[in-house]
Amino acid sequence: MLTNYFFDALNISDNDDLLAFSKKTNIPVSKLKMYNDERIFPFEHDLKVILKELNITELELKLRLGIFDTSTIKDIIKNSSVISKLLEPNNSKNFKEKTSAKPIYITKLGKLYQDDCLSIIQNIPENSVDLIFADPPFNLNKVYESNINDKLTKEEYLQWTEKWVIGCINILKEGGSLFIWNLSIWNTYISSILNKYLNFRHWISVDVKYQLPIPNKLYPSHYSLLYYFKRKKT
Fold first, then answer.
1. How far is CA 207 from CA 5, 32, 200, 223, in A?
2. pTM score
3. What's the confidence (pLDDT) of residue 20?
């Protein structure tokens, strides 16, 4: 199965569909996969033939892909009441009961938990944490003791990332700080989420030189540390 918003928008569910769509539009399979894997909106001639093949407008394709420019967002805001009623049944299905998390170590200074981050986050009261430092897996296909899958598709990794980032935002106290350590490519997406909810403080670049020069990489290589905070009420 081929799963992603782009392929879903094009009604492509398997390799046979992909080959057929490529033949009809004369867009190479490799290019269609690039649009899909990199979450990039099709451009120029490709966009025109895709819209013609699907018999939809550019706006509908953007809505299918979750891409919104300012004018589209304004229209959504104007029709927010109608849209919310349409989406409410779907949102209610996503509700999950909280599970009980038990600490593995307790001292006078606090409690230490070892569990899936989403499970821990849902057990922490909202607006109760002063400081969060997140160092998630970078999706580099590393082997971890927990046996987590560190080789997700870009879409899967970003969907998982959005869940725990929103969770951190919810439990962060007013005046609290959030730090997220990750590769720059992932933090560009994370920053776009945080900018909607928190105040930006700094993007800290940390120089990391292991074995350079690295083929097809610019010098110097670095990781990034995002620093955001939840401003107190005035």
1. 34, 35, 21, 7
2. 0.79
3. 96
